[in-house]
Design brief:
Blueprint (H helix, E strand, L loop, with lengths): L1 E6 L5 H14 L4 E6 L3 H7 L5 H10 L1 E4 L13 H8 L4 E7 L12 E7 L9 E3 L5 E3 L5 H17 L4 E6 L7 H13 L6 E6 H10 L6 E4 L1 H14 L9 E3 L4 E3 L18 H13 L3 H16 L13 H13 L5
The structure holds adenosine-5'-triphosphate.
Adenosine-5'-triphosphate binds next to loops.
Amino acid sequence: MYRVTLIQGDGIGPEVTEAARSILDATGVDLKWEVVSAGETAWQECGDPLPGAVLDSIRETGVALKGPTTTPVGSGFRSVNVAIRQALDLYACIRPIRQLAGVCTRYEKVDLVIFRENTEDLYAGVEHLVGDGAAEAIKITTEKACRRIVRSAFEYAVRYGRRKVTAVHKANILKLTDGMFLRVARAVAAGYPEIEFEDLIVDNACMQLVQRPQEYDILVMNNLYGDIISDLGAGLVGGLGVVPGANIGDETAVFEPAHGSAPQIAGKGTANPVAMVLSGAMLLDYLGEKEAARMVLEAVEAVLGGGVLTPDLGGEATTREMTEAIIRGINRPPLK
Ligand code: ATP
């Protein structure tokens, strides 16, 4: 039995986490869910968007499945996502960007993985006003953080048989901060001669990814570029509704989709559960339940390939219809 913390989140969060929970349960893996509240929901319930009980629960179980939580824009409380990642030192954000059967896009054979440093850079949240008409934000970069994110990208490449790691940066302008990232990346790469290594300036990376996404394999970068390029990557393979994610540290891991709480479609029953469900498959893989993870992945692809698509993918299926179809796919005995 595995204890798993479940954060339902805001907006479409409760709908997609419920879908993921029922699909993970259908695999037969014995998961004991411990439900805690964070984000706007918790803010309204108890005046704290990240109650101590949430971090305590994740520290105890070691693993969480998290729905998206709303972050107020421009003012209000700090991002709960960022706070969780920093508090638990979940330094590696991993987002597989993969073409799925049945999802119509302009590209073919896109299969890349984004490694985003999760704990520093402009996300350290150090901002201040300078007089009345100016403000400053501080971009924090340490060798330690650069080294561990690049190393996890290479270790992943070795473990999953990947061929190339590309470091994305702006070291031509930010010579100290991104310059450090690039220098450390080159040093780490030297320890993995069997994996190809290259670097790319972030603006060029955006253009190359739009023109030739198939040429990339693993991309590693700091926090802000990782945020932006994740959404660009989602756009290559059908949108935010299909891109899962994991935030991994040395002790704990939190699995959550790349998308936000999408309040415009909350409660309508049309949210695409795939990103959340595939985040759940990554959680199963992390727990060592490889066969169950594979079952979920195959059932999702079979359902999408069979034309059961939510409106964001051009179909008319509801969250519930897609969820039920995936569960039927998991329960179906394999063809002999
Ligand atoms: P955040 O700032 O929290 O990252 P965001 O402003 O980037 O959020 P999202 O909530 O991620 O925005 O979503 C952007 C748009 O993508 C939504 O308005 C919605 O149309 C679409 N979208 C995102 N996730 C899904 C989903 N699971 N199903 C369907 N549409 C989605």
